[in-house]
Structure formats: C-alpha cells, structure tokens
C-alpha cells in the first residue's frame, strides 16, 4: 500500500512538476538565477572570510616554525619588554626564547610602493633565516635578506620605509625558502636594526618559545602564564594571531548585504512558486479528480522548489566565486595595510556545501505557503473552466496587504526598540538582524500587494475607443490580482535594493567626511604614507621630521595622532587612537560628553567593543602590559563605525604613559597668528626631510580620506549591482510566467477582433502600469526599510548615522526597473500574438 502511494506521488510529480520544468527550461533557469543571487552573496561573504583567515594563519604558522608557544603583549607592536623575556627564559621546560619584531611597511623601488612584512630576528630563528647565514657564536644575521622573487624585482635604488626615515637597502641576500611566505613579500632584518628603525626601543612584538624535548607544551604554557606580568599572554600554535582582522570591518557590512540578498531571494522564489501553482491549477484538479491527495500536490511543488534550489545553488556558487574576487581584493588591501599579508582567493569544500544547503533551504522555505495553496484547488470549478480569481477581489488582497504591512513595520519597530539604548546588550544585535529580514520581506511584499490594490481601484471611462488599449490592459490586471502582484513585486525588488544600498553607502561616505572635517578644519594635515594608511604602517614620522616641523615659521602647534593596536585581557582586539587634540563627530550612546572624559584621563569606547566585551560606563579597563599596565575608567561610549566599532580614544599623553613613546602617524599643524594653512603648506614643501611627507588642507584631506574609503567600498558597490542584475532577471522570469497563464485570455481578445498589434500593445501596457506602480510603492516603503538597516548598522558596524534617502537614486532605479520590465514584457507579448485563438480556446 505504501509503495503504491509513493509511486502515485512520483507520477503526479513527474507529470505536473518535472514535465513543466522540461517544457519551460528557460523559465526554470531564470527562477534559479533569481534564487542564485542570494546564494551568490552568501558564498562571496564566506569566501572572503575564509580567504583572509587562511592567509593570515598561514603566514603566522610560517613565522612560528616549530615553536609550539608564543608570548604576546597587550600592544601588538613593542608589547614585550626585556624583563618579560628574561622571566620566560627562567621558566622550567623552556628550551629557547626567540624574539621577533613583525612590522608592516613599504618597499619603495622605481617609483612603486609595495606592502611588505618586515621581520626583525636574531640567529635563534633558524627556521626563518638560512642557518648558513649565522656562523657559530653569531647573535644576528650579518645583513638584510628577502625572498628570492622579491630581490629579483627590486631596482638599484630600493628603500625600506621605517619610523626613522627611509632606509637604503643596496643589497639584500635572496632566500628562496621565503618565496612561500606571504607570496614572497617579506624582508628580514637583524633584530637590533629592526628595533632601532621601527621605534621599538628595547621591546619586541612576539616571543616564540621552544620547549625542551621531554617537556609538555601545555604545562610550560601554564608556568609561563603564572610568571609573566599583567597584559602578557601565552598562546599556542593553534590559537589565531591577535592582530587586525579585516573581517571585523568588512564582514558586518557584507553581512547586511547578505541579509538583504536572503530576503530578496525568499520573495522571488515564493513569487515564482505562487505563479507556477496558478498556471497549473487545471492539471492539479485533474490529478485530484483521479485520486491524488492534497498533500501530494503540495509535495510536488516543494520538490520542484528544491530542484530549482539545487540549480540556483550551483549558479549562485559560480556567481559567488566571481563576485568574491573584487571583494577579496579589497580585503587583501586592508590586510596588507594592517598586517602586511597578501590574501589570495581560496575556495574550500565547506563554502560549496554551505552554498548548496542555503539555496535548497531558502527555496523550500519560500515555497511552503504557495505550495499549500495548491492543495486548496477547487476541482469542479477548475475542470469546468470557470476558475474564480479570488485574489483579484479587493477583499482578498487587503487582508494580505495589511498583514504584510504590519509584519514589515513590526520589523522596523523591533529594530528601533532594540537599538534605542545603543544596542549594547548581546540580545539586541540578534533581534535587530532578524528584524531587518522581516522588514525587507514584509514591506517589499506589501509593495506588490498595494500595487495590485491600487490598480484594481482604477476606473476608466466607458465607450472611449481611443483608450481601448488602456482599458483592456487595466481590465486584465484587475482580473488577475495574482499576476499583477507578481509583476509589481518583481519591479519592487530592484528599486528597493538600489535605494537601500545606495542610502547605506551614502551614509558611510558622510560619516567619513564628518571625521575628516572634525580633524582637519583650520589645520595643515601631514602624513608619511597615505592619509588612510597611516595607522597600521611602521613608516611614521621620524624624530628628525618632527623636530623640523616644530621649527617651521608660522607654526603655532604641532598636534600628533597615533593608532595603537592592542588586546584586552580577554584577548579581544581594540584600536586605540591617541590624539593631542581629540575630535568627536559621532553621537554618544552612554556616559558623559567625550571631552570631559579626555580631560579626566578616562576612556572613550566604541559601541561594538563595549557590547562584545560587556563594558559599561564606570568600568575600569586594563590596558598595557608589564610595569606600564594600568586600569583606566571608561567615561563615554560612542557610536563610532571606525575599525568596526572597536575604537578606544584617549589623549596622547595618557597613551604614552600606558604604551610608551609612540611615533605619530598623522600630524596637524596649527597656523600661528598672521600665518595660514596655505603658507604652512608652502613652508613644508620647501623643506627637505629624511622621508616623504605629504601635506594637504582640510578639503584635500577630506577628499583623500573619501578616496581611500572608496577602495574598500568598491566590493559593496559590486554586490549592489550584482543584486540589481539578479532582480532584473526576476522581472523577465515573472513576466514569462504570467504570459503562460494568459494564453486563453489573449486568445479570447483576438477572437473578439483584436489585431496582433493591439494584443502586443495591451500586454506591454500592462507591464508598464504594473511596474510603474510597483516602483512607486517600493520607493516609498524603502524609507522604512532604510530605517531598519540604519538601526542594524548600530549593532553591526557601530554607526548611528541620520536617515538618508537617496532621492536621485530612487528615481533613477525606478525608471531603470520600469524600462527593464517593459523590455522583459516584449518576449511574452510577442509570444501571445503567435497563439492561434482556436487552439487556446478549444477547452472553453
């Protein structure tokens, strides 16, 4: 009995679902493409994440060599003093301690700058440097070395940028083993030279620990942790490097895009499944009349959705790999800038598996409600040829519309309430992200149903032959609310996506501009690298340059700014900004005004850092390591998007007290009375320094920072246009699907005397009306979606920016989406003119 039921179910699936896919291969492909867009964004985000982590870990493993343990300080640069190294050497079970300096800098050759990883080592690091280089009893390598591929690419005048000026390197020893480290972008210096050139004084960045033959690494690590002072931590080879993670900046942004893509994919596959059910009502009724159960009909459409999900996943994985390339390229720029690590594109089997599961799961979930409607097919009505269109009635549309509006605005309200207090609780981030998906799905679907309701309400004057085409088109749209909803929804998606992502990017750019203006107003801004690269580079202002700047005519004050990468006691990474003149362009989430915190030697903390570490105003945060370590009170929590919201701000004086002397990455020159920014710029340009110095005014600084940020926003723009392309494909898919449903309707019009040209015009006008109304409602409801995404930005990227509605983008993409709908309607319009009326009406 069970076998016969299974056989019957498979027969129904084969006849109703599989045959439809074979007959309409193009339509199935378009449906899969619509779903593949969401999968592609998810896959691209996963590839970016795995590529970065794999590249960073690989470099870390190569530098660590056979050492099972390593000691790190609170500050990732110069965080370990000589006393800590001496203490580690005396711990039982420690065979050797290997101090290393790991600097990120620029190799300048032939007018071209290359990010490189500069390693300062002594002869104890024999796995990094060729043992033949160090003779017995020799403490350090006698000369600088580099990978063989890097040496071969350098010209005779190559220099290495350092914190004391550019270092001439007329000769480098080539070591072929270094070609596999960081794609060959590595330079090795003697430890003493690295300390002097990279402003480490007597400190180092990392100490690798080799363990005695019979000693247990875990036991030795425990002893080291007990002996070392505050702020010093012992990590194993398996623990990730505590350095800048580009994913902390890019992943929240990409994650918001992925949430939008998932919401769009759910809408599109649900819409396509619903239209497929409408198209095959008659076949479902015949199967039911022959004994098929309602569950069989629903299962068939779920199986069809799963099949399209598999196809969409494959397409999405391929598209995701393509999209991932510019995303990883942007991530590689950030990683090179902060860690000196080059990131290639890495696609592993786990990413492919997640892509497949995501596509199938999204397709099945989206198809559940439309598939259940197949089980409610009225058998007698369908078989008699008098199928009712309940969805066309205003009473049938309004309840769904109101329910979707309540759902969508409920999502916006939930996101707003969860972030009203700054989103500082862990649960608030989870609620906000879920609320964004609900808002996107609810409001975009509501836009489609609102469009159908408005079109249903439009009345034309009777007996006007000059508007016959419009009248027939409106009648066709009113007669089938399901079809009208599908067309309007297909256009609403790309318009909303464009408005949403454009508004998001505009808000980011405005935030960047606000920071630049606050820092540089009435100042001349100087850097030794690029205005967006100064924080992480070991190529900051040398003492000689600072001394010359202080003596320039017309200088009233030399204001320093430095970035310090540090770890908190729980291992969480934070980024300290030390300033002689702190600026605060971001809103306060909790605590006192930030300037009061600075004046009281208290900390200003970013919102995401506070939430992830449970930091509250009044808490004492341990910073620094060794004898300099100190607990400082948190006075203010800010909504800052810088470095993923993991910012700590303090005065330059307090930073040097905790972390030691710091070379400035940016310098602001304040003109004295009678001088000006322009005069100071001329003075700087006329003086010679031992390193390149770039100078600009406030406007130039703002443009430079915006240009630098644009490099990292490029992958977001790529994703935006990718989502738009997928959404436009959905327009074609939907209109092809609705054209199949209308064959008998078109044939009836032809039988009543309409010419092929009139039929073509009617079909095209329908697309224009439905898409224009859908674009209008989508743009209007996008304001609410923007508010939900703005709230999500508080908990994902730390930004609390004002609501920004890009009106020009909304109008542009509304026009583009409507045009795409009209172009997509041409094929079904032409096909509708090719059907013989007698063939289409023979079942009437």
UniProtKB/TrEMBL annotation:
It comes from the Bacteria. The chain crosses the membrane at residues 28-47, 249-272, 301-325, 345-369, 402-422, 434-455, 486-508, 721-738, 759-786, 810-830. One of its GO terms (biological process) is lipoprotein localization to outer membrane. Residues 256-377, 723-835 form the ABC3 transporter permease C-terminal domain. It is found in: Cell membrane. Keywords: Cell membrane, Membrane, Transmembrane, Transmembrane helix. Pfam families: FtsX. Its main location: membrane. InterPro entries: ABC3_permease_C, Lipoprotein-release_system. Belongs to the ABC-4 integral membrane protein family. LolC/E subfamily. This is FtsX-like permease family protein. The lineage of its organism: Bacteria, Bacillati, Actinomycetota, Actinomycetes, Mycobacteriales.
């Amino acid at each position: 009995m069970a076998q016969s039921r299974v056989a019957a179910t498979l027969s129904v699936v084969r006849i109703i679902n599989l045959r439809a896919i074979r007959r309409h291969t193009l339509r199935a492909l378009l449906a899969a493409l619509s779903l593949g867009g969401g999968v592609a964004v998810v896959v691209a985000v996963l590839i970016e994440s795995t590529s970065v982590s794999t590249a960073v870990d690989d470099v870390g493993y190569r530098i660590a060599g056979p050492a099972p343990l390593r000691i790190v300080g609170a500050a990732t640069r110069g965080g370990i003093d000589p006393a800590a190294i001496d203490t580690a050497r005396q711990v039982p079970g420690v065979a050797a301690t290997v101090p290393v300096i790991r600097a990120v800098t620029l190799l300048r050759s032939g007018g071209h700058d290359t990010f490189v990883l500069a390693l300062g080592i002594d002869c104890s690091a024999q796995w990094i440097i060729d043992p033949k280089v160090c003779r017995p009893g020799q403490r350090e390598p006698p000369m600088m070395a580099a990978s063989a591929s890097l040496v071969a690419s350098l010209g005779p005048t190559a220099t290495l940028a350092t914190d004391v000026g550019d270092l001439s390197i007329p000769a480098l020893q080539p070591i072929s083993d270094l070609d596999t480290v960081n794609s060959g972008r590595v330079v090795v210096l003697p430890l003493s030279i690295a300390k002097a050139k990279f402003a480490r004084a007597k400190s180092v960045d990392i100490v690798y620990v080799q363990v005695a033959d019979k000693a247990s690494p875990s036991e030795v690590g425990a002893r080291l942790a007990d002996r070392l002072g505050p702020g010093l931590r012992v990590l194993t080879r398996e623990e990730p490097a505590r350095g800048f993670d580009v994913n902390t900046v890019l992943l929240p942004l990409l994650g918001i895009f992925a949430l939008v893509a998932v919401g769009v994919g759910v809408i599109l596959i649900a819409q396509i499944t619903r239209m497929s059910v409408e198209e095959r009502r008659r076949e479902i009724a015949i199967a039911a009349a022959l004994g098929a159960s309602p569950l069989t009909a629903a299962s068939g459409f779920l199986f069809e959705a799963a099949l399209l999900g598999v196809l969409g996943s494959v397409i999405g994985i391929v598209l995701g790999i393509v999209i991932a390339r510019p995303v990883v390229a942007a991530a590689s720029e950030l990683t090179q800038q902060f860690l000196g690590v080059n990131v290639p594109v890495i696609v592993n089997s786990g990413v492919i598996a997640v892509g497949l599961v995501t596509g199938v799961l999204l397709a099945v979930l989206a198809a559940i409600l439309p598939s259940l409607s197949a089980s409610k097919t009225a058998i007698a009505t369908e078989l008699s040829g008098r199928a009712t269109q309940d969805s066309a009635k205003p009473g049938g549309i309004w309840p769904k519309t109101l329910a979707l509006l309540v759902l969508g605005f409920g999502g916006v309200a939930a996101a707003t309430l969860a972030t009203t207090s700054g989103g500082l609780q862990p649960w608030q981030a989870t609620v906000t992200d879920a609320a964004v998906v609900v808002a996107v799905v609810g409001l975009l679907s509501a836009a489609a149903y609102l469009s159908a309701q408005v079109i249903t309400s439009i009345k034309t004057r009777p007996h006007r032959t000059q508007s016959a085409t419009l009248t027939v088109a409106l009648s066709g749209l009113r007669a089938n609310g399901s079809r009208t909803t599908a067309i309007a929804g297909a256009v609403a998606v790309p318009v909303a996506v464009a408005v949403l992502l454009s508004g998001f990017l505009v808000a980011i750019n405005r935030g960047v501009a606000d920071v630049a203006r606050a820092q540089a107003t009435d100042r001349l801004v100087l850097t030794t690298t690029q205005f967006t690269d100064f924080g992480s580079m070991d190529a900051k202002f040398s003492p000689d340059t600072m001394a010359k700047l202080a003596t320039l005519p017309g200088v009233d004050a030399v204001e320093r700014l430095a970035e310090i990468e540090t770890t908190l006691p729980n291992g969480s990474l934070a980024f300290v900004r030390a300033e002689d003149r702190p600026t605060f362009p971001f809103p306060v989430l909790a605590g006192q005004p930030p300037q009061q915190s600075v004046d009281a030697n208290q900390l200003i903390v970013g919102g995401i850092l506070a939430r992830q570490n449970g930091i509250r105003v009044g808490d004492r945060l341990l910073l620094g390591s060794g004898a300099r370590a100190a607990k400082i009170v948190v006075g203010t929590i800010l909504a800052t998007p810088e470095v993923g919201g993991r910012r700590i701000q303090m005065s330059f004086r307090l930073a040097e007290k905790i972390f030691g002397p710091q070379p400035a990455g940016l310098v602001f020159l304040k003109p004295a009375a009678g001088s000006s920014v322009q005069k100071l710029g001329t003075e700087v340009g006329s003086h010679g320094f031992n390193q390149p110095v770039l100078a600009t005014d406030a406007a130039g600084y703002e443009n430079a920072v915006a240009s630098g940020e644009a490099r990292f926003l490029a992958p977001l723009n790529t994703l935006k246009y990718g989502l738009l392309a997928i959404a436009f494909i959905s327009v074609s898919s939907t209109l092809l699907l609705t054209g199949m449903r209308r064959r008998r309707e078109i044939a009836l019009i032809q039988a009543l005397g309409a010419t092929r040209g009139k039929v073509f015009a009617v079909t095209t006008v329908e697309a224009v009306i439905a898409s224009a109304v859908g674009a209008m409602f989508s743009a209007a409801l996008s304001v609410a979606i923007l508010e939900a995404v703005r709230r999500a930005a508080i908990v994902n990227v730390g930004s609390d920016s004002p609501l920004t509605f890009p009106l020009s983008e909304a109008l542009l993409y509304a026009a583009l989406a409507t045009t795409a709908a009209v172009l997509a309607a041409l094929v079904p319009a032409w096909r509708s003119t090719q059907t013989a009326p007698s063939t289409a009406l023979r079942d009437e």
